[in-house]
Design a protein that fits this description.
It is found in: Membrane. By secondary structure, this protein is an alpha+beta fold.
Length: 413
């Protein structure tokens, strides 16, 4: 006790030393409270939550709540310890109180933001309406929390009522919006892109209107940088991603499948009902027997009369479509668990489009293009086995062949 009395008397005669000692005491008390909260308060709060949860319920949100609550304690302790410290200059006390007030509202906004995130994740996990989202309402709530926290921080820093801050903001809002309109638009766009998780570094995006196709390399406040596949660099204003159309291919990479949706045209005059004469070259193609047996309900194709094909509406194009679906299902580079469709589209002057719809097991461009090319090369070659002709506009060779046939007929006369 005598030593403490001597220390206090010594500090009374040295104001600078007293202030330094008090500041060190504040720092030590804040650090001690922070460490104590990390090892004590979080465990206490989580133990309380343990009692109300089942074993299969995740307790991650309990830890998040406890950690955010533990941030308040050092600020509160430092604020109240400061009130009992003598020999502190009023200006320094005011500065420390202001700093504590700023930290208090910052931690308060962080805590409420964490609560909103927990509400959103709980709603997504427990809601029966899986396609319904409250993320928009959560984001509005976060904006309001940040606005209120900013107003309270300004009130603490200026030592004025929050009502005065709100009334003064209304007078300069129009001027600020006019001067910083591009910055505000970019800020809103950046927040929406990041919060909605629709654009990230490394995404492959396409903007047809800008003739852009490449990888996102940088996301800044005002611009987004894209490295095109020809190694050129393009910078697009961030706000353009809210007003213009673009395609993000990242979801395709994440799914592990890439879609093929391409068609070839069939000459309408080559489509006929099946007949025994047609079946001979078709049966020579490996894999035709299984789809044909399904269409014939297990009948022997050599014993079916031509009239049966007509009565049941089986054409060479019908068999060709079913054969192509079986052919695609056997390919190792086509995903079996996703759609495999061979369908005809609306007829046009160029014939009947036969569309192939399936998904490749490789998402890489070279593998994808190779698979797609192999499929349509095979369709082009095998269509003749089914007495089908692929439509194409007459070329020079066609006119030459017609002229040769015409001259041959003339010479025969």
């Amino acid at each position: 006790m005598a030593y403490l009395d001597y220390l206090f008397k010594f500090m009374e005669g040295n104001p600078a030393l007293a202030v330094g000692f008090n500041i060190i005491l504040l720092i030590v008390s804040g650090m001690f409270t922070h460490i104590l909260c990390k090892f004590l308060l979080i465990k206490v709060v989580r133990r309380v939550f343990f009692a109300s949860h089942k074993q299969d319920v995740p307790l991650e949100k309990d830890r998040r709540i406890a950690e955010k609550l533990s941030n308040f304690m050092p600020v509160i302790i430092v604020y109240y310890v400061l009130q009992f410290m003598p020999n502190m200059p009023p200006s320094l006390v005011t500065a420390i109180n202001t700093f504590c007030g700023i930290l208090f509202f910052i931690f308060l906004s962080i805590f409420f933001n964490e609560m909103l995130d927990i509400v959103n994740s709980s709603y997504v996990r427990k809601s029966k309406r899986k396609n319904h989202s409250i993320k928009g309402y959560i984001q509005i709530g976060k904006i309001l929390i940040h606005v209120i926290a900013a107003i309270m921080i300004l009130a603490v820093m200026s030592n004025k009522s929050p009502a005065i801050i709100i009334s003064s903001l209304g007078a300069v809002a129009a001027v600020l919006m006019l001067v910083f309109q591009h910055t505000l638009l970019s800020l809103v766009a950046n927040v929406q892109l990041s919060s909605n998780d629709v654009l990230q570094l490394g995404d492959w995006i396409e903007m047809p209107d800008k003739n852009l196709s490449g990888e996102v390399t940088d996301i800044a406040l005002h611009t987004i940088t894209i490295r095109n596949w020809d190694n050129t660099i393009s910078r697009i204003p961030t706000k353009n991603f809210l007003t213009e159309t673009y395609t993000n291919w990242q979801a395709m990479f994440s799914s592990g499948a890439r879609r093929i949706m391409r068609s070839t045209s069939i000459d309408q005059h080559s489509i006929n009902f099946l007949s025994q004469e047609m079946l001979a070259p078709m049966l020579s193609v490996r894999g035709v027997n299984e789809p044909l047996a399904k269409l014939l309900d297990g009948r022997d194709p050599t014993g079916v009369a031509d009239s049966w094909f007509i009565d049941n509406g089986l054409t060479n194009l019908t068999l060709f479509r079913h054969y192509l679906m079986a052919y695609l299902a056997e390919r190792p580079d086509i995903i079996k668990d996703m759609y495999i469709v061979a369908r005809t589209l609306k007829p046009s002057p160029s014939g009947i489009p036969l569309e192939i719809y399936c998904f490749t097991s490789s998402i890489f461009w070279m593998d994808y293009e190779n698979t797609q090319s192999e499929i349509f090369e095979y369709i082009t070659a095998v269509a003749g086995k089914f007495s089908l002709r692929l439509y194409q506009y007459p070329a020079g060779h066609d006119f030459w062949r017609l002229s040769q046939e015409s001259s041959g007929r003339d010479s025969a006369r």
